[in-house]
Amino acid sequence: MDRRRSIAAWTPLLFLLILDKGHRHGVYAKPGLCEMETGQGNIVLDIEESRGSQINQPIKPSELPIIGDPYTEISLDLLFPTRNSTFALIGKHIQLTQPLDRDAENLSHIVFQVTCVVRSTNKKRTIPIIVRTTDINDNAPVFLDTPYQVSVPELTTVGTSVAAVKTVDADTGVNALVEYLVIPGNVPEEELQKGRVSDGVKHFKMKSSNSGEIILQKGLDFEKVQKYFVTIQATDRAKNPDDRLTSTTTLTVMVKDEDDQDPSFNYQGCTVQDGACINPEYYTTVASGVNSGVLTIRPEKIQAVDMDSLNYPIEYSFIDGTPSFYAEYFTIDPQFGTVKQIKAVDTSLTKRFSITVKAEEESSNHRSTTAKLYVEVKPVDINPPVIHSSAVDEGYGFVEENSPIGTKVLDKNGQPIILSVTDDDLGPNDPKVTYAFELTTNSFNVDSDGYVYVNEEKLDRDPPNPGKYRFQIVAREVNGHAGSIPYLMTVFLKDVNDNPPRMPMLSPITIQAGNSRRQLVQIKAVDNDEGQNANVSYSIYHVSNQGHSKFHIDPITGWIETTGRMMAGDQYSITVQASDSGGLYTQSIVEIVVIAGPNTKSPVFSQSSYEVTVSEGSPINTTVIPLKAIDPENDPVTYTILSGNDLRQFTIGEKSGIVSVIRKLDREELTRYQLLIKAQDEGGLSSTTTLNIKISDINDKNPEFIGAPYEFSVDEGLDGAPVGKVEAVDGDEGINALVHYSLPDDLPFLIDANTGHIRTATALDYEKNNEYKFVVTAKDGAPDPRIGTASVTVSVKDVEDEIPLFHKTLYEAKVPENSPDFLVTQVHADDPDTVKRVTYVIKQGPSDLFTIDPNTGTIRTLRGLDYEKDSQHTLIIGTLENSNQTPGATTKVIVNVEDRNDIPPVFLTIPSPVTLDDDVAIGTKVTTLLATDSDGTSPGNKVRYELSGRGKALKYFHIDPDLGVLYVRGDLQKEPDNEYQVDVKAYDLGEPQLSSVTSVTIFVRRVTTPIPELGMGFSDDSYTARVLESAVAGTLVKILTVVHPRPSLPLPLVCTIVSGNSE
Hints:
1063 residues, mainly beta, Immunoglobulin-like, 3 helices, 79 strands, 40% strand, repeat, membrane
């Protein structure tokens, strides 16, 4: 047997051959190099984990304790079990190459090796290194299983455990120990708005600081708070307090209601504490000798509620009362609390019952509460209550006007009026009855003591307001229904001086010049007050033009008279003041104009009014009418137009009285004028007459259209359809204003000549013409007619009378297979209508593979297409609006599927195990492995073969890459293995490349004689090495492997060069 075959299984050792011309027969290493300074077999280092991205933290010891200079005597190299090199070596110093996180990687220590080679002898030693990582506190505690929520009954005793939290800290040692504390927190705003929520810091605490158990430290009350938010803080216990880290979480505690509240009687107006009525009392009355049956209870019916949210039913009962025989007369319904009188009672027995009502929950705790029911026994009501007044004159009262609310009404002696009520049905020993007063007016009211008072602000006596108020008063029992006979009362408002005198406005006064004393005018002032407050006196406050000495006023009568000479042309303004006795006053001005005299008669027109007609075409200066006024005293007369000539169309001769036209007249602007003409003599006396001028028409106006230009719209396809109406007006009158309408002859429209209504003459087609523009003419009825025109635009509205059509009858698209939601193409159909309505549908074709957007016509794949199944698909696309079979109603879409490499090769058979003799010849065919690829096109369906995996099988077998034939490539006798697992991969040439793997089991049958065990030797018979001619002494040429059958025995190994090294 070959010697090399026998040593193949031996353990190899390394031998270094060093080229050195000076030492041919061996060199001995310097003692101690690569040995440990400490004498130990490994190196232990300590390092602190990184803070963030830190990599420069110190390592202890700072140098590796290995003997030798790393630059001249020894060489050092680090070996790591993985490719991740955490440390780098600089000389004997080790330094981090990347941040070190002890917590994330759970690195309590890191183990690797350092190889030390003695440079002079190539002696090599491997030393284990253990790096111990020290934890820093860089992780806060993390709460587990959040969020936390628990429900706690409200009667839970203090000290009871209600919940527990748990944390984990990624650090170690004391850095991982956690202390807990309940701290103040913030209640969410949305929870505060719901109410009955609170921070739980005062009600809950940790059982101990190092335990996550939460206990109750203060009692709960569901009726006050139903939800607590407990904020829990977890803090680690790093040695340095400044380095400690914290985190918080919130425990939501839902308080569960329990039966801890008594029921409560509730009615409006009771005194409430913690939501329940305190000392509730109910009242009712019964008539003596009458069985009233079900009683009316005040202030409300008897009703109690469970103050817990459990809402247990309530049972009502009487438990005691006075007099003791109350139960003979009254009962209470246990379910509804209705009180019923079962027997008539007489006032001779008692006038009042006091009964204790009990309300009890129908629960295991039988919680209850009580209330008082007072029953008044009233004598038989025979006589109504009677109202009495303290007024001297009963039924009458007085109060000043404008008195504030609350002012008491007085009698004629000035004493407040008090009303009292008596009832002959009540005896001296009967309970006192309280009455309420009802009045038929809102201006006054009666208080609880019977005083009548003002109940409305600003009661005014002065006209037109009433000076007195008459109203009725009825007294009615507060706790009963009996009412008194109406009491009639009249309150008079006493006058106060709150109105100043009022004077009328006076017209200017004209007087003739002269020196005699004359009365001018009497001033009469009115004061709405009465009596002394209404007495008015007059005085002259001021006279303009220094005329104070020329006028006098009687302080009583108010007559103003002249006291001095009046000169013609003088004017005076007299300020007259009227004052009442209370000092209130008003002022008025009297204008005085002095004219010349003695002129006593004014000019007179022959008529009080004149009528005249003038053509609107009258030229300028045309005479309208001559007017004349005769002065009885033959004074010269002057004429003026006082009014009606605002447009300055006319003028009048100042001396002649001739009225003439001075501007062009236009009847269409104004048809009539009314002038007020004044004739005045030299003495200033005058008279007036009215001149009515009518303007006659001429045909001078064109018809004018109202609202032009016109815009109408009409639906297509309608014959005789109304389009719209035009309207023109002519500013003339009579026949000149009569308007007729016409249209051009070549239009598809007709117009009513009299009304202007336009309608279609034939059916219109929007698709041919969607708009018409034309001119309508209006002509008046004059013999020489005038015309007007207006533009008309008629828009034809489209009616949906067209169907969508496809102008393109064929679409082609390419789609890669296996591409869902892939955009195939977009089809388009055209709708000639204005309002486009096109809804796309797939009429024929695989609708399970394709979908179309009904609005846009976009076609997409619903799922991936399979080229190998169908390489082409045909779709017929149509629209919902067009169901015809005519050309253009549909279009065809041809979808070509592009092949993709999506199917891996598949071996045709599962290979059976093969047995070979160990002396089989190299190149022997073992088996054939065929695979096929179902892809549709090349190169995706082209198959190639190769061996995969690792191991010795690749050394002894190979496969034909094209044919899949497996051959023997090595001598099977070299290996002692009796079984090989050959992994064969079949792959295609597509993109991406796909493959599959199968395994062939090959058994080796040993038919040759076993080789006897040999001693130590080289692993190969010969070696080849290349050495550069420039190589220096000490250059490594080759590493030779020496094997030994028993490597566990001590190996005294010396290697020498025996020949070939003589040069």
